[in-house]
Write a structure and sequence with these properties.
The chain is α/β, with parallel strands linked by helices and 405 residues long. It contains ten helices and 17 strands. The strands form four sheets. It has a six-stranded mixed beta sheet with strand order 6-5-4-1-13-14. Strands 7-8-9-10-12-11 form a six-stranded mixed beta sheet, with helices on one face. A three-stranded parallel beta sheet has the order 15-16-17, with helices on one face.
């Protein structure tokens, strides 16, 4: 058996996310930007040390389609280092795309400069890529934009539902065309894509998602024409075809964006490509730890001391920390947040997010918010704000009309 072709699969870098960061005076950018770039360095070091043959970046290089020049420079320096060693596909994700088809995406500069070793996947395409250990048939599908479909004459004036059906049909047809091309090649075959898929578990990407997402059917990606399907767009690492072939894999993002990803392991995929017998493994990276500490001080005469005692038990060096304190309304004024900040400042290296949870007013009722309809929640909110009955009735009627519409 010939040597496997060693492939790197990663996605959703999102350089420019600055949540919980502080300004680094030596670089002029957020300290959190350095975290995302450090993860990219870590990945490239691994690829070079393990003699990778091919690299696939499955989309979303930056936070948005208008990255700062410094961030573009730092990203480009690292991609050039990778592409100098192995052919590298940069797939265009939804965060990389402009709203208008005529405008350049955030990765087009690599195409304009014809950077050696870099393939920019700005439209669906396929080609044979030569690597150190042999050729690979590589196909890709960037994020399918609904507004671009609307420019086609046959879809003008269509409803959103009709556009959704049309978009899914167009993508399915194009994926089949790529699979037809793949079947003609007796070499390892890879499909890269940036989109949502039915059944995938979403995470914090929903909080930064641009536009309304249209997930594809898993069956569109499980064609035996492929030996590996490398996906981007969803930040949680997961496998969508665990018992079948080919592997259909979201590598997930390289760094945590917010506390919604606190418990997720971040990393990339290391793939050994062979025709009909590809194997792969997930490689974790040293993403910045996010830690939530929940502290209930109700009934405590000195809530500040109780919080300080609790956090003193934890080692929080270099972590992004969120303190959530549950206390009764009379205790709120006696909680000294500056003392808590000072104590955390000696151990935590990065910005701290704090949330104070006050007991819900009994007048809102005994049911939890999850058990109430939107109108019931609104009604109880108006009651808690002492809105008079006539005005409350009028507002609820207006809200009901909006919800029904």
């Amino acid at each position: 058996m010939s040597d496997a072709i060693r492939m790197l699969h990663f996605a959703d870098l999102h350089v420019g996310m600055e949540n919980y960061g502080s300004l680094d005076p030596t670089t002029g950018t957020s300290s959190r930007v350095a975290d995302f770039l450090d993860r990219l360095d870590e990945l490239i070091d691994y690829a070079l040390a393990h003699e990778a043959d091919l690299a696939i970046f499955a989309g979303d290089a930056f936070k948005d389609r208008n990255p700062e020049p410094t961030q573009q420079r730092e990203f480009a320096q690292r991609i050039k280092r990778l592409a100098d060693a192995v052919p590298t596909l940069l797939l265009v994700g939804n965060h990389d795309m402009p709203g208008m088809a005529a405008k350049a995406n955030s990765l087009d500069i690599f195409r304009a400069l014809d950077v050696p070793g870099v393939i920019v996947g700005y439209r669906d395409e396929a080609r044979v890529v030569e690597t150190h250990r042999g050729p690979v048939f590589l196909a890709w599908m960037p994020y399918p934009m609904r507004n671009r479909l609307m420019a086609w004459k046959k879809y003008q004036g269509r409803s959103i539902d009709e556009l959704n059906k049309g978009l899914r049909a167009e993508v399915a047809n194009r994926l089949e065309e790529l699979a037809v091309q793949a079947r003609k090649q007796d070499i390892p075959r890879v499909l890269a894509g940036h989109f949502g898929v039915d059944g995938a578990k979403f995470g914090s990407e929903r909080s930064v998602m641009l536009g309304r997402d249209l997930p594809l059917l898993t069956s569109m990606l499980t064609d035996k024409a492929w030996d590996y399907v490398a996906l981007g767009h969803i930040h949680r690492h997961q496998v969508l075809n665990p018992e079948g072939y080919p592997p259909v894999v979201y590598s997930g993002s390289l760094e945590r964006i917010d506390f919604g990803e606190e418990k997720e392991t971040k990393g990339f995929c290391w793939v050994e490509l062979r025709r009909n017998s590809t194997s792969w493994e997930f490689i974790p990276v040293h993403a910045r730890p996010f830690t939530t500490i929940d502290i209930d001080v109700r009934g405590n005469d000195d809530p500040t001391s109780a919080v300080l005692e609790r956090i003193s038990e934890r080692v929080l060096d270099g972590q992004v920390v969120r303190i959530r304190v549950k206390l009764s309304p009379p205790q709120s004024a006696s909680l000294n947040e500056r003392e808590i900040e000072a104590a955390l400042g000696t151990t935590a290296s990065y910005v701290i997010s704090r949330e104070l949870e006050i007991e819900a007013r009994s007048r809102l009722g005994e049911l939890s918010p999850e058990e109430l309809t939107p109108l019931e929640l609104l009604k109880r909110y108006f009651i808690s704000r002492d809105v008079d009955q006539e005005r409350r009735k009028a507002l609820l009627e207006k809200a009901a009309g909006l919800l029904d519409g």
